[in-house]
Description:
- The chain is α+β, with helices and mostly antiparallel strands.
- Helix content is 36%, strand content 15%.
- Helix 1 crosses helix 6 (118-130).
Amino acid sequence: ACADQACVPWWSFTKTALATAALQLVARGHFRLDDLIDNRPYTLRQLLQHRAGVPNYGSLASYHESIRRGDKPWSVTQLLDRVAVDRLDFEPGHGWCYSNVGYLFVRQIIEAATGQDIGAALRHVIFDALGLDSVRLVTRPEDLAATAWGNRSRYDPGWVYHGLLAGPPGDAVRFLHKLMCGDVLPPELLAEMIDCHPIGGRLPHRPWETTGYGLGLMIGQMTSVGIAMGHSGVGPSSVSAVYHFGDRTSPCTIAAFAQGNDEGPVEHEVARLARQMRAPANAASRRARPTAGR
């Protein structure tokens, strides 16, 4: 298990932070959700919801082979060439397919709007205001080596092209809880964020009864605990699950991080802990308490 203050990789929970920062910039008038991006055929909303048709690198055998060999990450130009980024998987708005490349574009949009690299931009736009000083962008194998389970494979986080955050489980909980409770985004943009595009039903060996995606949020019904909103993630040697359960008598936010390469156990763990939650005397304090995976 990892304690509240142990630093752990957030993996794809980073997408929730990227989406939140993008929506903050929408609130500040930098751009609009439904305007086309530059001369591209899709919008920011479609990128955030994986509905832009942008191809992903997860299916590239050469991507995984390069990581196994310990190669240096490709340049962004090489990546986009190898995924043939101009050949969309479907017409924007007429399909759904998870795309890390789409979130690389979200990163670039945030960096262009703020004039900062993504680590500084996320601190400035989100984390400083929430007092979450321990959250940071990891950019080198040495950065991952300093996290809870180390980095025995010498994985280079540069392979995560949209960026990889790391921080204490407690900060993951505090960030998502404040976001879901309306302390981060204007109400109208939070409503847009949690508007769910349905994807499907049950997933084998995972607690999902229904699955969908908002803007940077996995959303669906989990067994016996109602609607869950947050994100799971997986990377070399560890997995993450950070979810808000708003249907509970006392809404709660729970994070689980563990060694392994299967998101199912940490998702089952957050669902189990959510079922155990009761309204304590000091509800706000209890809801903000992080929980780490086994």
